[in-house]
Amino acid sequence: xxxxxxxxxxxxxxxxxxLPMLLTGxxxxxxxxxxxxxxxxxxxxxISQAVHRGWLAGLTVPILATGVLAMQVVGSWLAWPYAxxxxxxxxxxxxxxxxxxxxxxYWYSGQAGKEKSILAALKHFRGGDxxx
Length: 132
Prior knowledge:
Layout: H1 3-15, H2 19-47, H3 50-58, H4 60-77, H5 80-87, H6 89-98, H7 105-109, H8 115-126
């Protein structure tokens, strides 16, 4: 769901004709970015084994920083409306790839009659090692 305000924000930034459009676009993209960060941390914590959880969660900040750096580089090559247009690719790709993500075992545990789905998700994420 966060891809909708993200995409809307970047479209507004790319098409902005005045300051309120630009600021609204930045607000929407910023809200989405903040939501991505917390959701990524929760997802990683739910699918990873305890022994790997720390370093996997720690990768979130460098990966997000790499994305910011990539946009800075694109922005140095292109005018800002075109750079914002290029940035619309990220939420589109995210929406497509998120459709392929598995639900977490914790998500299934909150639903009645999903024991087989819990085991399938654990096997998918942890490869049969369900020690924790």
